[in-house]
Amino acid sequence: MKKWKKISLFVCVFAFVRELRPIEPFYAAYMTSPIVNITLTQTSRDVYAIGAYSCFGLIIIVFLITDYLKYKPVLIMDGICGIIAYCSIIGHPSLLRMQIGQVFYGFFFSSEVAYFGYLYAMTDDKRYYQRITGQARAACLSGKFLSSLFAQLVSFVNGSVPYVELVYLSVFGMFFSTVWAFLMPNVTNSVYFHNERSESIDQPTPAVSNSTSFTGESKIIQDIESQPSKIKMTNKEINKNKSLGQVLLYLKKDFIRSYSDPYVRKLCLWWAFAFGAYVQVYTYINVLYTYVLDLNEDSHFTLYNGAAESLNTLIGAIAAYSIGKLELNWFKVGDLFLGIGSILAGIVLLGCFYTRTMWFIYAFYIIYGCLYQTMLTVAESEVAKRLSRDSYGLVFGFNSFIALFLHTLMTYGIVQGHIISVSTIQQFLIYAVYYMSIGALFLIFSIKNYFSSGSTVSFIECKQ
């Protein structure tokens, strides 16, 4: 088996088992059940909010220790933190115990960047980036699908949602992911702390005309890459083990080099803002289910949260895998694709605001998940193809940092009501307007790109 296939297999299995957390679709319902017995407001403002703050506070720390420890130990810690997070809600937990568990959940959530960083650090050929991105994303979504489907089937068989059993199964899933992380191959070199790296002097990047065809675009890249001496000069070798000062210097250089490409900046803008809203929607959709159910005063309605989540992830996985194999000139059509997709995502979230029928809310959430996962796969793979491998973890980490900052800001200002006080269902109106604004911006980018296609733009694919 080729190395890239082997590494992709290891990461896909890890991503799959990491999502075997069947309590997730019913988390809010579990919080308000007689077992835990806290209110829906406490769930949103006192439990979920701590997780949001923890994610934001830990993302930079996780990024730095991921590189220093060379990925694998962080993957192991990821599983251990997941075990602690779900053990904290076993039995009749106090509010303080659940909040402490949310701190560990913050590390668990923030560590997603670690296994994507591991994937790209172990894959030498960037030609496979789009494919392995789609495979890893599909594996992650497939794990969510089976986990949610299992939770729903168990609920059907049991006649009600077996909350306690689902929590224990979630702990087991985290244990299995920890064991699998131990079995994954070691990374010999990391990007910053443990790497034989040259101090380089970046020369001005020549501007090239954007080709109107995919073939022409590839030829331009090949012509540029055939003359590396014009782009980069090396003047001395640096020792393999780096000091903190050297690491910070490399971080600064990689940051400037990576985000100097306007195309990368534009994709990262969509990525960070869309991901921030996605975390909000994913976190509070279960709160919305319980809120609407209480609003309708329908005590006989059977929750289908697991079925909705399973369909959401199944369709999203198929879409992510399919888009990963689709060869289009995304440089030309990407803005239009992200613009239309974001507006459609806003429209279906607007449907969640207007309807009081649970079946429609389930359907809208499924459509939203499919749209988001498809667009995310395109954005991730396109960014990956235009970065050096050394810079990939930095860009992913920074995008996640901005996304979690937005998530934290929305949690503080909207969910906890420090800026504007709204109900759970009104939150989804804000999310809808948010996505439609992103879509409108990218449609403007698309129109601008269409009318300026003859102008000179910088279009460089960085060498590894």
Automatic annotation (TrEMBL):
Tell me a GO cellular component.
plasma membrane
**The keyword Membrane belongs to this UniProt entry's keyword annotation:** yes
Positions of transmembrane segments: 46-66, 73-91, 103-121, 167-187, 267-291, 336-354, 360-379, 391-415, 427-445
Q: Return the InterPro entries for the record.
A: Folate_carrier (IPR002666), MFS_trans_sf (IPR036259)
Keyword field: Membrane, Transmembrane, Transmembrane helix
Q: Tell me, what is one Gene Ontology molecular-function annotation carried by this entry? A: vitamin transmembrane transporter activity
What PANTHER family does the annotation carry? FOLATE TRANSPORTER, IP11787P-RELATED
Please report which protein family the annotation says this sequence is part of. Belongs to the reduced folate carrier (RFC) transporter (TC 2.A.48) family.
Protein name per the record: Thiamine transporter 2
Q: Which organism is it from?
A: Melanaphis sacchari
Provide the taxonomic classification.
Answer: Eukaryota, Metazoa, Ecdysozoa, Arthropoda, Hexapoda
